[in-house]
From TrEMBL:
<dbReference type="InterPro" id="IPR044824">
    <property type="entry name" value="MAIN-like"/>
</dbReference>
<dbReference type="InterPro" id="IPR019557">
    <property type="entry name" value="AminoTfrase-like_pln_mobile"/>
</dbReference>
<dbReference type="GO" id="GO:0010073">
    <property type="term" value="P:meristem maintenance"/>
</dbReference>
<feature type="domain" description="Aminotransferase-like plant mobile">
    <location>
        <begin position="2"/>
        <end position="118"/>
    </location>
</feature>
<protein>
    <recommendedName>
        <fullName>Aminotransferase-like plant mobile domain-containing protein</fullName>
    </recommendedName>
</protein>
<dbReference type="Pfam" id="PF10536">
    <property type="entry name" value="PMD"/>
</dbReference>
């Protein structure tokens, strides 16, 4: 029971602090508590779609005439910009963009942001 409590706290921080962050960056909306009540049901939700929807909504609010800040998972926007607009991206040096993570006998494509893990290192 204690492990589940810590897991819920960690996931709540992940939801409110990273995926669905607000401009205060220190508050978590109480709405997300209901999604952590049942772990099996939470695993069936489309968190990626919800995260992108939240980011798109925050982008719409940021370009409003009165908008001065942006909230949400801005790291996703940054990774997209680096990939789609290479002149904005840091120089990658000798790192291959299509690295493959090797997991025993299974080859998995890396996460989207994985290709930039060494981007700011100097060679």
């Amino acid at each position: 029971m204690e492990v589940q409590r810590y897991a819920r706290a960690y996931i709540l921080q992940l939801l409110g602090g990273t995926l669905f962050a607000d401009k205060s960056n220190n508050l978590v909306h109480i709405t997300y508590l209901q999604f952590l009540e049942d772990f099996e049901a939470a695993g069936k939700y489309s968190w990626g779609s919800a995260t992108l929807t939240h980011l798109y909504r925050q982008l719409c609010l940021a370009v409003d005439i009165d908008g001065a800040e942006i909230a949400g998972p801005v790291i996703l926007l940054q990774l997209w910009a680096w990939d789609m607009l290479p002149f904005l991206a840091p120089i990658m040096g000798n790192v291959l963009r299509n690295d493959i993570i090797q997991n025993e006998d299974l080859f998995l494509p890396p996460p989207f942001g994985h290709r930039w893990r060494h981007a700011l290192e100097t060679t």
